Each structure stands twice: as C-alpha cells, then as structure tokens.
Amino acid sequence: MEILQQLSETIDNFRYFTEPPKTEMEFDVKDIIEKSITLISPSFKLSFIQLENKLEKDCYLYGSPREFSSVLLNILNNARDILERKKIANPKVKIKLSQVEEKVVIKISDNAG
Hints:
The protein has helices at 2-18, 29-46, 65-86; strands at 25-28, 50-55, 60-63, 92-100, 103-110. The protein is of the alpha+beta class. The chain has one domain: Heat Shock Protein 90. The strands form 2 sheets. It has a 3-stranded mixed sheet with strand order 2-4-5. It has a two-stranded antiparallel ribbon with strand order 1-3. Strand 4 (92-100) and strand 5 (103-110) form a beta hairpin. The longest helix is centred in the C-terminal third of the chain and has 22 residues, at 65-86. The radius of gyration is 15 Å and the shape is globular.
C-alpha cells in the first residue's frame, strides 16, 4: 500500500508539471520543493544518494511555480550526475530554504567537490 501511495503521489505531481502553464502567481516555495523532491527521489534512491532538506514554512515567491520547479529539478539532476560520475562515497545533496528579511534564500549543496 505504501508503494501504491507513492506511485499515486508521483502521478499527481507529474500531472501538475504537465498541465498547461498558468500566469505568474505567488506560490509556496516549500510546497514546490517538496513536489520536486517527490519526483526526483526515486532516482536518488537508485543511486544511493542521501537527500537532506531543511525547509522553513511561509516562504513565498511571485513567479511561475513550474519554471521554478524545472530549474530546481535541473540542479538536482546535475548534482546526481556529478555524484555518480565521481563515484563519491556516501553521496549527499542538501537543500535549505529560509527567509532572510524580505528575501527567500535557497541553498543547494552536494559533496562532489
């Protein structure tokens, strides 16, 4: 049942990303990061890459959530690729979301060097 639930969530997330683009809007950054992680986590698990995240609530941006997610997925895919290519022991990717004054700060790091 747990696998079926994960598949259902993945399908829902995939459907979200394939819908026609909407106009720019205010969106919850944490929510979009979590949806993106859901999409990419199976490939990270297959590569034995640990994905750590520390995501603050109530961080909002104005723009296109789909474009934001696309950029995030590209960065995470690039991190996975370099970790695999360099054959890093105990590969990790960290995502940190915070708000500093009026700015939303997203830090993504890996241990690929």
